Automatic annotation (TrEMBL):
Top-level division of the source organism's lineage: Eukaryota
InterPro entries (alphabetical): RNaseH_sf, Transposase-MT_Hybrid
GO molecular function: nucleic acid binding
Protein name (database record): Histone-lysine N-methyltransferase SETMAR
Lineage: Eukaryota, Metazoa, Ecdysozoa, Nematoda, Chromadorea
Length: 90
């Protein structure tokens, strides 16, 4: 569903329908820009819900792209380095 922003441009909520359309446009652009190359596509998603809906995963598999796994978020595995950034800020 498109909602205009204050500049009059359409904004979309990213749901699986919008994401599927983006993937189809991406595939068309790759095929258009590299018609003779049959490069293998390795695609990386994050763990957002629309990215792993069944239809999206089936579409990526249908395109014969490899899906690079994204590790789950963990605050203990992804430190913020707040103390380093804080000293630079001062």
């Amino acid at each position: 569903m498109a909602n205009p922003d204050r500049n009059g441009k359409r904004q979309y909520n990213l749901n699986s329908d919008v994401y599927l359309a983006q993937l189809n446009r991406l595939q068309a652009a790759i095929e258009d820009k590299r018609p003779r190359k049959k490069n293998h596509v390795v695609f990386h998603n994050d763990n957002a819900r629309p990215h792993f809906e069944r239809r999206v995963v089936e579409s990526i598999e249908g395109k014969r792209w490899d899906l690079l796994p994204h590790p789950p978020y963990s605050p203990t595995e992804a430190p913020t380095y707040y103390h380093v950034n804080r000293s630079i800020k001062n």
